[in-house]
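Comment on both lines for my students:
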Amino acid sequence: MGLRPLTFTALASSLLMLTACNGSAANGAAPAAATPATDQAPLAAAADDVIAGVPFASTAVATFNEPWALAFLPDGSLLVTEKSGVLKHVTLPAGEAREISGVPAVGYGGQGGLGDVVPHPQFAQNGLVYLSYAEDGDGGRGAAVARGRLDTQSGALQDMEVIWRQVPKVSGNGHYAHRIAFGPDGMLWISSGDRQKFDPAQDMGSNMGKLVRLNDDGSVPADNPFVDQGEVASQVWALGLRNPLGIAFDGNGQLWEIEMGPAGGDEFNLIERGGNYGYPIVSNGDHYDGRPIPDHDTRPEFIKPLITWTPVISPSSLIVYSGTLFPEWTGNAFAGGLSGQTLVRIELDGATAREAERFAMGARIRGVQQGPDGALWVIEDGKEGRLIRLAPREG
């Protein structure tokens, strides 16, 4: 399959209002049926595109069928998830991709399917990989996280076990969120969306609309803030979130979160222990049917976002850049934008943040990651989503 040329355009002064929670069909409607996933032949890398006014060169490496997440392994190879339930192992720089067996069955449709992929911090020693996905069960669907050992030689996941589930399972196919991250202390963090059900984000009998903190085996740390309030509440670190699609730690160990708002009001938050971020009681956006939601300023007991976006960018992913290939950006956050078709650079300064720059990408950006050499890697949303390396221009 040939690679489409990568183009950049100047960002318009305003962006279109988000028409649905993920910038596609309303209410998370399922996209057209995916074409069968097949292993890809090596794709010749496109020549670097040097665009005036854009401070990086771009190289398209491979394409995927509805990719959702990417993660680097210690050997410099890459894991990529496809929403239909396929995990691929990609060797670089050639872009050869082969399918990994042993992935759990996923509930595919709407925003549901195979989601995030993250290797254990000690992957080189234990081979553990964590996957998030939509899981079918009594009452509907919910996000789940499973872990297993990846044998890159045989191309198989082994000893897969589910270590966390959203509860309860509900109808619908939206707002799973299910991003995964490991903290500096080795704890496992999972973002859990409200599943478009609103009230569970404030209900401590549900782990929906929350940020969850666990030990790496799925057990509950003894120092979680709500550990004495019941089994489900004991998992929770923060609550009052809507569709948190990006979580990332900075060099100081602070956790940042980015989420899709309703009609307006995408948020960027610094996460506090036991913090309540107010959704659905407050938001800087409104309901899709036009009903207003009180702004954060009206309820000071809830934590306000540091940045809000209206018109929205529909954030999909988040990293904090720690490399030196772009030395002027070390310590900055980068967020992928879906409806905004943008990569957003956010300057972090202690407990404050501000949007610093947008790069118009010409496509919906589903994932962003930092490579071993400090290059930025993005992956596009959709049936022919490209994996693209961003690096400084030569000269």
